[in-house]
């Protein structure tokens, strides 16, 4: 079972000589962090970012005096050095935000992570009785047989019983990942849910502890998080300034389409609005999606590696941003919706993160929807998907249609790596092949095909350097 902490692939040669040129593919947090650390040590770096600005998912949009992040980024870290760097970067714009989240279960809003007693009170009585019976049977059964860990369903059902697993874990996992929990790796359950002792569960009922604290989830869902007052986009902006001030080069709207191995190292070909360009370097750090990396490599990688890269599964995300004529809609930072009858996975009101994210007497909601490129949801027009979202928001009693005065949509094709049953085998095959090339490194969420947060991407980038 993979541990929840970030593990980096073994490196062939450390970047330990001055006057080497490092080409960094991708300008997200991982790529920027690699570059930042390297320029601090005096290395020459060149970043290639396909979008018009750096940051990857950690970007902020300014739309009619409303600020929207591309994705949710509640920054926190168990690593003191990473947290210190983040705080120093953001400076006086840093906010400490008290986390408060809800989940919509059985027609009611309850705290998330839910307290055990809250689950007991909210769950329909028949489901509760069945869950308790299955839970006890499961715990006894585990005394005589080792737990299964292959799939998400195996992992959760063997620990909590079918009913409890289905309603608290599997439904949301299926909705979020657009894949049966039987086809998702147990690594995902281990990473996000954790494990627990039966005595902790009993104590928690009377102590009213939260679900996460009982199940010892490794996902950092602490009571507070750190956030820039005008959006997460300040994070990559500040790193970029550090890089440029040290003489680093950042190329935006630069789409890498070919990587050649040459005598002195590597040559990267990339497309710009002004035509094709080439750059050479002694080292490469890639943070771009593995399938795009494999496709662009010359000489071509083996058929097995190409097949493995094509087998990797990524989720796309559609973000619907809705502007509302009301000072506040909620008093929480995040609300989850596990029901598949509701199109979106969760909503955020960034004004509850920072009052500077929206005008005084108005607010906005940021709506997260996962899908795959080319599926029914992805093919919906912006108008169709917005209409459906507003209808669902009315049904769950968040807003009324007449309060909405504007909206816009953006789509992110490579948002989440999906941990299916074969992801470890496929990624290991690709990494092992790339590991045969000198001074070639992988880093980041898409570069390493790891579901990590922005603090972990920063840490991984710095460690890679």
Question: Could you please describe the fold and organization of this structure?
Answer:
One of its GO terms (cellular component) is cytosol. One of its GO terms (molecular function) is flavin adenine dinucleotide binding. This is Amine oxidase domain-containing protein. The chain has 465 residues and is α/β, with parallel strands linked by helices. The chain folds into 3 domains: 157 residues, FAD/NAD(P)-binding domain (3-Layer(bba) Sandwich); 114 residues, no CATH class; 104 residues, Alpha-Beta Complex (Polyamine Oxidase, Chain A, domain 2). The protein is 35% helix and 24% strand. Strands 7-6-16-17-18-15-19 form a 7-stranded mixed β-sheet, sandwiched between helices. Strands 9-2-1-13-20 form a 5-stranded parallel β-sheet, covered by helices on one side. Strands 12-11-10-14 form a 4-stranded mixed β-sheet. The two termini are 27 Å apart. The N terminus is likely disordered.
Keywords:
465 residues; alpha/beta; FAD/NAD(P)-binding domain; Polyamine Oxidase, Chain A, domain 2; 3 domains; 16 helices; disordered N terminus
What is the strand and helix layout of this fold?
Elements: E1 21-25, H1 29-40, E2 44-48, E3 60-63, E4 66-69, H2 80-90, E5 94-98, E6 101-105, E7 108-112, H3 116-122, H4 125-141, H5 152-160, H6 162-177, H7 186-192, H8 198-207, H9 211-215, E8 224-228, H10 234-245, E9 249-251, E10 255-262, E11 265-272, E12 275-281, E13 283-286, H11 290-296, E14 297-298, H12 303-311, E15 314-324, E16 334-336, E17 346-348, E18 363-371, H13 376-379, H14 382-395, E19 404-417, H15 423-434, E20 440-442, H16 454-464
Parallel strand pairs: 1-2, 1-13, 2-9, 6-16, 10-14, 13-20
Antiparallel strand pairs: 3-4, 5-8, 6-7, 10-11, 11-12, 15-18, 15-19, 16-17, 17-18
Helix pairs in contact: 1-10, 1-16, 4-5, 5-6, 5-7, 11-12, 12-15
């Amino acid at each position: 079972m993979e541990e929840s902490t970030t593990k980096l692939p073994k490196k062939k040669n450390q970047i330990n000589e001055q006057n080497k040129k490092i080409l960094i593919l991708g300008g997200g947090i991982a790529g920027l962090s690699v570059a930042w650390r390297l320029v601090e040590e005096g290395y020459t770096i060149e970043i290639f970012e396909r979008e018009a600005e750096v940051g990857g998912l950690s970007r902020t949009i300014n739309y009619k005096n409303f600020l929207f992040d591309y994705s949710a980024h509640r920054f926190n870290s168990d690593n003191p050095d990473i947290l210190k760097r983040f705080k120093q970067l953001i400076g006086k714009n840093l906010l400490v935000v008290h986390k408060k989240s809800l989940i919509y279960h059985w027609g009611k809003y309850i705290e998330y992570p839910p307290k055990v007693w809250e689950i007991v009170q909210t769950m329909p009585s028949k489901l509760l009785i069945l869950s308790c019976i299955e839970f006890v049977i499961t715990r006894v059964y585990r005394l005589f047989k080792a737990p299964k860990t292959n799939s998400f369903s195996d992992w959760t059902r063997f620990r909590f019983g079918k009913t409890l697993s289905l309603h608290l874990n599997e439904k949301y996992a299926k909705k979020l990942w657009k894949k049966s929990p039987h086809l998702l790796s147990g690594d995902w359950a281990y990473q996000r849910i954790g494990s627990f002792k039966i005595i902790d569960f009993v104590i928690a009922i009377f102590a009213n502890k939260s679900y996460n604290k009982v199940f010892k989830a490794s996902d950092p869902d602490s009571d507070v998080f750190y956030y820039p007052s005008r959006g997460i986009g300040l994070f990559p902006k500040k790193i970029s300034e550090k890089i440029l001030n040290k003489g680093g080069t950042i190329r935006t709207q630069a789409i890498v389409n070919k990587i050649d191995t040459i005598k002195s190292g590597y040559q990267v070909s990339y497309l710009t609005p002004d035509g094709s360009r080439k750059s050479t370097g002694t080292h490469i750090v890639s943070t771009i999606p593995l399938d795009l990396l494999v496709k662009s490599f010359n000489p071509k990688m083996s058929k097995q590696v190409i097949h493995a890269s094509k087998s990797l599964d990524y989720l796309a995300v559609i973000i619907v941003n809705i502007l509302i004529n009301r000072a506040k809609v909620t008093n929480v930072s995040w609300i989850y919706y596990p029901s598949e009858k509701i199109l979106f996975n969760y909503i955020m009101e960034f004004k509850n993160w920072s009052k500077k994210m929206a005008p005084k007497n108005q607010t906005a909601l940021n709506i997260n929807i996962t899908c795959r490129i080319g599926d029914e949801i992805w093919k919906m027009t912006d108008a169709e998907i917005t209409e459906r979202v507003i209808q669902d928001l009315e049904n769950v009693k968040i807003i009324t249609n007449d309060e909405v005065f504007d909206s816009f949509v953006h789509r992110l094709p490579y948002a989440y790596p999906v941990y299916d049953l074969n992801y470890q085998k496929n990624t290991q095959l690709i990494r092992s092949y790339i590991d045969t090339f000198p001074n070639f490194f992988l880093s980041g969420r898409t570069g390493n095909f790891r579901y990590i947060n922005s603090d972990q991407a920063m840490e991984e980038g710095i460690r890679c350097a």
